[in-house]
Amino acid sequence: MEKIRKLKKYYNNINIELTDRQAEQLLQFYSLTLEWNERMNLTAIVEEDEFFLKHFIDSSLLAGCLDMNGVESLLDLGTGAGFPGIPLKILFPSLQVVLVDALNKRVQYLAMACDSLGLEGVVCIHGRAEDLGHDTLYRERFDLCVSRAVSELPVLVEYCVPFVKIGGSFVAYKSKDVRKEVEMAENAASLLGARLKAVHEERIPETEILRTFVEYEKTGPTPDKYPRKSGKPSKKPL
Length: 238
Ligand code: SAM
What we know:
This protein is of the alpha/beta class. Helices cover 39% and strands 22% of the residues.
C-alpha cells in the first residue's frame, strides 16, 4: 500500500494520475525485474526509489512533452529490460507495442513479464534494427518509435526512422547537451526522410537529472537502401 502511494505521488509530480491497476502493474514489473535480475543482467538500478525515478518516471516523462493522442502504435528499439516501452504501455493501455532487442534472453524475459502483467497488444521481437527495418511487418508501420540509451543520434536515426510511418515521429531519449549530436545527425535525418521537429527538456522530479527528448517527424519515405547492413550504421555513421 505504501509503495502504491509513493508511486502515485511520483507520478502526480509529473501530472499523471495513476490508477490502482497501473500502479500495481508497475510494482509487479519492479518485482519481476528484481527477481530475474538474479539470473540475467537486466539493470544495475535495484533500489526502489531509484528504480521508480530513473526507470518508471524517466520513461514516462515523454507523456509531458509529446501529444500521445492519436498514437496507436509504438516501437521501442533496444528496449533492454523494457524501458521505456513497458511503462508507456502501462500508462497507455490501448497502444499496440513492439519491443525490439538484439539480446534474445532479454526478449524472452520480456515476453514472460508482459504475460504475467496481463499486458495485451505487446509483441517482443528478437532482432537487430538493421534487419527488422527491412521487414515489411515493421517498416513504416509505427506512429511512434522511441529509443533510450542505445546509440548516438546519427546511428539511432538510421535504426529508428525506417520503422516510422510518414507523418509519425521518432523520439530519442538523450541525457546531456545534445546540440552537437543533433547537428551530427542532420545528414542522417535528411537521407532517411525525417526532419528535426523539437528538442524538449524535462527534469526527473526529486533529482537534478535532466532528460532531453529529441523529436523527429517523418516527412517522406525512407529509401530502400536504409538501414544499411548489420553493424554498418554504428561503424560508419551517415
Ligand atoms: N532501452 C533500455 C534502457 O534504457 O534501459 C536498454 C538500454 S541498453 C544500454 C541497450 C540495448 O540496446 C541492449 O539491450 C542492446 O541489446 C540493444 N541494442 C543495441 N543495438 C541494437 C540494434 N542494432 N538492434 C536492436 N537492439 C540493439
